[in-house]
Every structure is written in structure tokens, then in C-alpha cells.
Write a structure and sequence with these properties.
- The protein has helices at residues 9-19, 34-46, 57-69, 80-95, 122-126, 144-161, 171-175, 216-237, 256-271, 289-295, 312-319, 345-359, and strands at 5-8, 24-27, 50-53, 74-78, 100-106, 137-139, 164-170, 177-180, 240-243, 250-253, 276-281, 283-285, 302-306, 332-336.
- The chain is of the alpha/beta class and 361 residues long.
- A seven-stranded mixed sheet has the order 3-2-4-5-7-6-12, with helices on both faces.
- The relative contact order is 0.13.
Length: 361
């Protein structure tokens, strides 16, 4: 078993990507993810792999798209406004069924906003982000260990389903340091063969990869086929974690850094004699609607804690529609911050107390 090493989240992401077989990285600097680009600049070149600091975020995503079409496990990373510039390329990749990995170390917005940690890119990542009908798998780590693990796995998921995969870590996860056990390194020769990649190279037959279908009925047929694959992803890859008693008086819902804060608030609640559970979506898409619906079927209130002013909470409300007919639907509350403000354990605990008092009136 590998020993733990102390690493910053961004550097753990870079190392995990290399060990997963990333053979081409294209990026552009932006805070708070710059350590990923710096790590890849040194270590990809040391291994004889491709690293390019592109002239812009738009150039970087199109390089990733091209390298992936040619058969490389390719990746880019950025932070919020940089991710916005990459959305056109993400739409192209989704429309052409091209797998790639994108890491978003989220900062405050809109616009250039701040460089502080945020979760305000939730809608952008879970609703496609670019134009057209498509989704990306979105993995949300709450620790440096998960940041490494999810990045490592993202490449396999991208290849398995031929979709873009987003690792969405708020700025705190990218900048913090924790002990991490790194995964085994994969040999490039052992990676899945991309029989669909463009040809006319090394004796391969010529193949054409495109997202354009000018006949409307043809485009719809391709999109419907892709949506069948999305249903397979929902069935096989939807993930969540629940921490706490089954008879909780209140359910906290959060991911990433907000979930870490909620774990502390949960302990404060326990000390005060309040039973609180924590529901954490691990895949932001596909969202674990059914799992939360089962937990919420007892009608207990749900407190959504997020570093945005109401994005995750929309999916929490949708999850309550999964509650069986006749069961009491819970009231969903929101504790949200924006601009890079991180909620505190005491703040969440105070809201737990307030809500429980209202329920028990």
C-alpha cells in the first residue's frame, strides 16, 4: 500500500491525472488553480508527455478537443471565468462524443469576481454550460484525497461513456494541504484503445469526428442516442454519501467545502441533543435525486448549505418530488453565501437550532 504524502489539492489533482494516463495537458493560468498548470508543466515534460500553455482558455479547450480526437487522454483546468471561455469547446466535445477531463477550481463570480473559494458554478457544470442538449459527468470532492481519486477516475469515466467529465473543486479544496494516498500509475500502453479516434495516421483507416449534422432529424437522432447513454450513466454512476442517524430531526445538504463545514455543525448539534444528518451529493450530475428522496420521505426539514445564493438548493427541491405519494414533503431551507464567503460551523448550527425550534412550536 502506498504511503500518504502531504500535498496541496491542486498538485494532487495534477499527479493523479498523470498517473491516470493523461498524455496531453493544455492550460492557461488563472487563480486559484495555477498550481495544476505549474505541476503539469514540470512533470508532464519530465515524462516526455505533451504540455502546452496555450495563448488563451479558448485555445486550450480546443487543443484538448483535438488531442482527444487523435487518441490522447487529454485534460485542461481553469477557474470560473476561464471555464466560461471553455464552454463552447465543451459543447463541441459533447456533440462529437469526445471524452476529455476538465478541472474547475471554483472562485467567486459573476464576471472576474474574486479569487476566493466559491460554489457558484453549479448551474454552469450541471446544466451543460454551453449551447445545445448535453450533460457532463460532474464529480465534487470534499478533500484532497477525493480530489486525487476523482481526477484519476474521471479519465476512465470519460473513456467509458465518451463524454466530458468535470472535476469541480471549490478554491478551498484546491489550495488546502492534506495527506493523500496516490493511486497506482497506469502505463500508457495499457489504456483503453480508442478505435473511434481519427485515422489516416499510422496505417489507421480515415475517420471523421464532428458535431455538425445539418439535417434536423439527423441531429435529433444523434442527440436521442446520446440521451440513452445519459440514462445508463444515471443508473450506474450516481453517487452520494449520508452521514448521521436514520432518525435525524433535520437533514443538511451540502457538497465540497460546505459539506466539511456541515460535519462540524453536525457535531455541535449532537452536543446540543439535536440529531442532524448530512446528505452529500458526490456526483452533481447525475444528481442523486432518488437517494435524497428516500431520506427525505420522513418529512423532516432540509437545510441546504452552499457557497452560492441558491443553486444546489434547486436540485434539493427537485429531489423532494421523488417522495412517495401521500408522504409529507419536507420544507427546504437555504443558507447561502456568495463572492467567496465560506459559511461557518457556528452559523450552520445556529440555523439548525432556529429551524428545529420552528418545527417544534
Amino acid at each position: 500500500m502506498n504511503d500518504k504524502v502531504l500535498m496541496k489539492g491542486n498538485e494532487a489533482i495534477g499527479e493523479a491525472a498523470i498517473r491516470a494516463g493523461c498524455s496531453a495537458y493544455f492550460g492557461y493560468p488563472i487563480t486559484p488553480q495555477n498550481e495544476i498548470t505549474a505541476y503539469m508543466a514540470k512533470n508532464m515534460l519530465d515524462k516526455g508527455r505533451i504540455f502546452i500553455q496555450a495563448e488563451s482558455e479558448t485555445a486550450a479547450i480546443n487543443m484538448v478537443y483535438g488531442a482527444s480526437c487523435a487518441g490522447a487522454r487529454s485534460m485542461t483546468s481553469s477557474s470560473s471565468p476561464g471555464i466560461s471561455l471553455k464552454q463552447e469547446g465543451m459543447s463541441y466535445a459533447a456533440g462529437a462524443d469526445v471524452p476529455l477531463v476538465l478541472v474547475n477550481v471554483v472562485r467567486g463570480g459573476p464576471g472576474l469576481g474574486s479569487i476566493a473559494p466559491s460554489q457558484a458554478d453549479y448551474f454552469q457544470s450541471t446544466r451543460g454550460g454551453g449551447h445545445g442538449d448535453y450533460y457532463c459527468i460532474v464529480l465534487a470532492p470534499k478533500s484532497v484525497q477525493e480530489a486525487a481519486d476523482f481526477t484519476y477516475e474521471a479519465f476512465d469515466l470519460a473513456d467509458k461513456y465518451r463524454v466530458p467529465v468535470i472535476v469541480q473543486a471549490d478554491g478551498m479544496i484546491g489550495q488546502m494541504m492534506e495527506g493523500v494516498t496516490l493511486p497506482e500509475e497506469k502505463a500508457l500502453s495499457a489504456l483503453p484503445k480508442r478505435d473511434w479516434a481519427v485515422g489516416n495516421m499510422s496505417g489507421r483507416e480515415t475517420r471523421h469526428i464532428t458535431s455538425i449534422h445539418l439535417i434536423p432529424e439527423e441531429l435529433e437522432a444523434f442527440t436521442r442516442t446520446r440521451y440513452k447513454r445519459y440514462e445508463q450513466i444515471k443508473a450506474a454512476e450516481t453517487r452520494h454519501e449520508y452521514v448521521g442517524p436514520v432518525d435525524a430531526e433535520i437533514i443538511l445538504a451540502a457538497y465540497g467545502t460546505s459539506a466539511r463545514v456541515c460535519l462540524g455543525a453536525q457535531q455541535l448539534a449532537e452536543q446540543a441533543g439535536i440529531k442532524a444528518g448530512l446528505f452529500r451529493p458526490i456526483t452533481l450530475w447525475p444528481f442523486p435525486y432518488k437517494a435524497l428522496g428516500k431520506i427525505a420521505a420522513n418529512g423532516k426539514p432540509i437545510l441546504t448549505v452552499e457557497m452560492s445564493l441558491g443553486q444546489l438548493v434547486e436540485d434539493i427541491k427537485l429531489a423532494t418530488l421523488e417522495i412517495p405519494e401521500g408522504a409529507k414533503r419536507p420544507v427546504v431551507h437555504l443558507l447561502g453565501h456568495s463572492g467567496g464567503v465560506i459559511p461557518t460551523e457556528e452559523e450552520v448550527f445556529a440555523e439548525i437550532v432556529r429551524i428545529c425550534k420552528e418545527v417544534n412550536k
